[in-house]
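The material for today's practical consists of a large collection of protein records. There is nothing in a record beyond a sequence line and a structure line. As an example, a complete record with its sequence and its structure tokens follows:
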Amino acid sequence: MVTDRVPDLGVTPEPRQEPATGARDWKRSAARDTMRGMTLKRTTVHVDAEDLRVIEEAATREGTSVSEIIRQAVHRAALTRRTWTEPLPPPARPSGAGE
């Protein structure tokens, strides 16, 4: 429960419930993703029950949300399947090489 005291009026408003952890985590991660320039789109994913259990345990252990873990996994999958239209630059030569 959170209570806010309004000092200049000397009154205490009714206690209010904090939002559910999932909603708060979603807003926090959505704000972070927007800061990184990512636009989020809602979708539905069907997963194996055992896989979901493992993800839920990991989210609890790591102090993050299930959604964040799934977003990271989807991002990694997209990166590994992306086709690049420009060639990669040549690798940097280690300092002192060829001298």
Observations:
- The helical segments are 21-35, 49-62, 66-81.
- The chain has three helices and no strands.
